Amino acid sequence: xxxxxxxxxxxxxxxxxxxxxxxxxxxxxxxxxxxxxxxxxxxxxxxxxxxxxxxxxxxxxxxxxxxxxxxxxxxxxxxxxxxxxxxxxxxxxxxxxxxxxxxxxxxxxxxxxxxxxxxxxxxxxxxxxxxxxxxxxxxxxxxxxxxxxxxxxxxxxxxxxxxxxxxxxxxxxxxxxxxxxxxxxxxxxxxxxxxxxxxxxxxxxxxxxxxxxxxxxxxxxxxxxxxxxxxxxxxxxxxxxxxxxxxxxxxxxx
Length: 254
Fold this sequence. Notes:
It is a single chain. The protein has one domain. The chain is built from twelve helices and no strands. The protein has helices spanning 2-13, 22-29, 34-47, 56-71, 74-87, 92-100, 106-133, 135-159, 167-172, 180-193, 200-223, 229-253. Helix 11 runs antiparallel to helix 12 (229-253). The model has no long low-confidence stretch (mean pLDDT 88).
């Protein structure tokens, strides 16, 4: 069951050629634990440039390139849609119509652009941290950031209510808070890395995902009446950017 759900999650959350069919998708949307499991795969692949003997700017750039080659732009599109909805005037119906609009406005460009810059600066610090304290810390923080971001998506899926019928409701409508226990268990391997790698920095990076998810959920309830698929993607992008910085800052201060 978990392996079937994982295959469906990889097919939905990444561009990896895993194949899959309707049964994989159905298993995934009923198993939020698959979200952080995908985070391990994406995080490990994205961290590969940090293992190479490259200049810091090059390693940071390749980290970003690898992320979007693996995950595609679906989550980034969700962030852009959220940015457009956040700046529009009107009620929940008006904001939902903006979310569904395929065109990207100034709000969306600003939201994605700022988040990308924040992530790039965090990646620069992450690559630098690898050079100063050893590769294991940098890789562990990158892994924790991705697992935490996906755990944030799972948090939304488990605690949110659908804002409207669509792809997001197929996930949110099928799960409850009970699914968070398995999600937490799936995150334990990252926590186990903390004493031998990045210490508190790994935990800080991991925790950003659920925290960002709760903030996005609060905004969604107040402005949209619930959670949409775009909010899931936006949570992933925002949580990753916050997590990389949280990990680097915590390591720097510890």
